[in-house]
Design brief:
Strand content: 15-25%
Shape: elongated
Order of helices and strands: HHEEEEHEEHEHEHEEEHEEHEHHHHH
Largest sheet: 6 strands, mixed, barrel
Distance between the termini: 27 Å
Number of strands: 14
Helix content: 55-70%
Mean pLDDT: 83
């Protein structure tokens, strides 16, 4: 018997019970739709985190001061005050592969401007800070190296401060007070949005690190050093060279713990995406259960179909059909059910993902590989769960089948 004839017989059998065939496909439809939707949600969350990591800049390496002790309690990273401006200058001078570097220190401050005031975060940075972070100016200019040397009272503010302090005025050239100290606004940053940790990056005022240290913190140390390497390929080597240099400068003996911590952008990205990756795997596993349940439904209906059509199978065998023809017929029925369910599930999953993205304002990323994987899984389930009923039908004894009532 030719394959196309067997295929036509299989379709005719499915069409005889349209409602039952549709209900059988429902499990596969829901399973495939759930897989595509959950993968889309997971990919969207991952893409969002990656975009937030990219907002840090390109090839960024952070050197953070180590932990210290306060009243018998150990503080977190950045509180040991072990890094200095001289460390940053030594890194620029002695470590190959570093394009830019900036000492960093920060503290919460109250900023007054116009007729309003706002609590924000003051960042003491170097002139290269915006180049490292790949952060553009919406208006004005960045402070210069001369401003750093002269401890100038100038600042660059983020969009959140513009909105809160200067809603109807041009902030460039205006004066603000940080604490009790007057500063002149020389530039306005473009919007960056939230960081990977959920912090509003636009809620900031950036001032020269020398001004910060002499007028705000009254310290000679910085909490961190941010730098940009020439490329991602040299990042690991640069991190090792910086570690060796700082251990030498800080006179740390062999075997003693570093009083600093170095983090590359890749490390930050891996840590930030670990949670979303785990969530994606968990959601995908839960959705996959629906596919298995759908496959069990196909096997159950096919077994019922074999029982109902036992006499029909006996007649076909009596007129010359072989066992392989019967096996192929029932296997095709199972595969057609699962594949049609897979196609409908893809439509359902894509539609549900887009509806969720619109309703929850959540980024959804549906890749072609996810669609191909879901459809392939549905076809594989049809073969796996349809083989046993098909084999059972093919192994029936023709005489017993003809006698079946």
């Amino acid at each position: 018997m030719k394959p196309h004839v067997i295929f036509r017989i299989s379709l005719r059998a499915l069409c005889r019970n349209k409602l039952r065939s549709a209900l059988t496909m429902l499990g596969i439809i829901i399973g495939v739709g759930a897989v595509i939707t959950t993968i889309g949600v997971g990919n969207g969350a991952k893409a969002q985190v990656e975009a937030q990591i990219a907002s840090l800049g390109q090839n960024v390496v952070m050197v953070v001061a180590g932990s210290g002790w306060a009243g018998g309690a150990r503080t977190g990273l950045g509180f040991a005050w072990t890094l200095t401006v001289e460390d940053e200058e030594a890194i620029i001078r002695e470590v190959r592969g570093v394009n830019y570097a900036s000492p960093e220190t920060a503290t919460p401050v109250q900023v007054m401007g116009g007729s309003s005031n706002w609590k924000t975060r003051a960042n003491g940075e170097g002139p290269d800070y915006l180049d490292i972070r790949d952060w553009k100016l919406a208006d004005g200019a960045m402070f210069t190296e001369d401003d750093v040397r002269s401890v100038a009272k100038v600042c660059v503010i983020g969009q959140t401060l513009v909105r809160e302090l200067f809603p109807n005025a041009d902030p460039v050239g205006a004066n603000v007070r940080i604490g009790n100290i007057p500063f002149k606004v020389v530039g306005v940053l473009t919007a960056k949005g939230l960081s990977a940790s959920g912090v509003d990056q636009d809620d900031t005022v950036v001032i020269p690190y020398s001004t910060f240290m002499k007028r705000l913190s009254k310290r000679n140390n910085v909490s961190s050093i941010i730098l940009q390497t020439e490329s991602s390929e040299v990042s690991r080597r640069v991190q090792k060279d910086i570690a060796d240099l700082l251990r030498q400068r800080h006179r740390i003996p062999v075997g003693r713990e570093d009083d600093f911590n170095i983090r590359g952008q890749e490390d930050i990205a891996n840590a930030a995406t670990a949670t979303t990756k785990t969530l994606g795997i968990l959601l995908g596993a839960i959705a996959s259960v629906s596919l298995v349940v759908g496959g069990i439904g196909i096997m159950n209906i096919m077994l019922v179909s074999v029982t109902e059509r036992t006499r029909e199978i006996g007649i076909r065998m009596a007129v010359g059909a072989h066992g392989r023809h019967i096996l192929l017929q029932f296997l095709i029925e199972a595969i057609v059910l699962s594949c049609l369910g897979g196609v409908a599930g893809i439509v359902l999953g894509v539609g549900a993902a887009r509806a969720l993205a619109t309703a929850a304002e959540w980024p959804i990323v549906i890749s072609s590989s996810a669609i191909v994987t879901a459809f392939s899984a549905s076809a594989a389930i049809g073969i796996f769960f349809g083989f046993y009923p098909a084999r059972k039908a093919a192994s029936l004894d023709p005489i017993e089948a003809l006698r079946y009532e």
